[in-house]
Amino acid sequence: MSAMLLAHEPLIRGTVFTVFLLAIALWEVAARRRPQRMDRRHRWPGNLSIVALDTLVVRLVFPLSAVGAALVAAERGWGLFNVVDAPMWLVLIASVVGLDLAIYFQHRLFHAVPWLWRLHRMHHADLECDVTTGLRFHPLEILMSMGIKLVVITLLGAPALAVLVFEALLNATSMFNHGNVRLPAGVDRRLRLVVVTPEMHRVHHSIVREETDSNFGFNLPWWDRLFGTYRDQPAAGQLGMTIGIEAFREPHDLRLDRMLHQPFVTPHRDGK
């Protein structure tokens, strides 16, 4: 079972990625929430190129995947769930929830620490918010995130199956909650009780600093409510809000080379 999970991890994650990317991209065409001034032709080449680069960099720097780290921890008896006797169903759920909580605090850390924000702000510098924004992260941030994730997986002793489920969920929900898609208000209100919705997460991409520093969750919406970072709607409304950050608002900032260089730029209007 363990060897099979490790062998099929790229196929499983690749399938989830492709299905959700295509499905949400089509949903954006059929039911767009916000009009976009900067269209896909200007934004998608850089956003999709960064995904390919991130994947390559992670594979080169971390030959051991997150699932592989879970298997090593299980083999050597490392981590909480490898020493505590508990039902497997409970361990699986607790591992997924624990990993999601770790990602929430990691996200807050990348906003709070100035040099980490320099890496993370590339994600926020997209001039629109759609399915590809959920994939747009600087390679250095991806490497740091992977390192943190490996440590958390080892400390938890999370089973390989739980890690695979979490990784697939994180990828899928990131594309979903960044999607420029329209949901009925009643559906969104009920749905955001169990998962971060596009309407909820879009507030996080507001140009307003107080709104940028809210709604940090990717998968589960509970952490923002529990730790006081939840904001229901942007002050200007979903259609009136401005997406992005003040420092990088020119079309050429969407090019791959400019995106990669952003952490090393100190603009006059950085906001942090």
From TrEMBL:
Its main location: membrane. One of its GO terms (biological process) is lipid biosynthetic process. It is found in: Membrane. Keywords: Membrane, Transmembrane, Transmembrane helix. InterPro entries: Fatty_acid_hydroxylase (IPR006694), Sterol_Desaturase_Related (IPR050307). GO terms for cellular component: membrane. The keyword Ribonucleoprotein does not apply. Residues 94-229 form the Fatty acid hydroxylase domain. GO terms for molecular function: iron ion binding; oxidoreductase activity. Pfam families: FA_hydroxylase. The chain crosses the membrane at residues 12-30, 51-74, 86-105, 150-170. PANTHER family: STEROL DESATURASE (PTHR11863). This is Sterol desaturase.
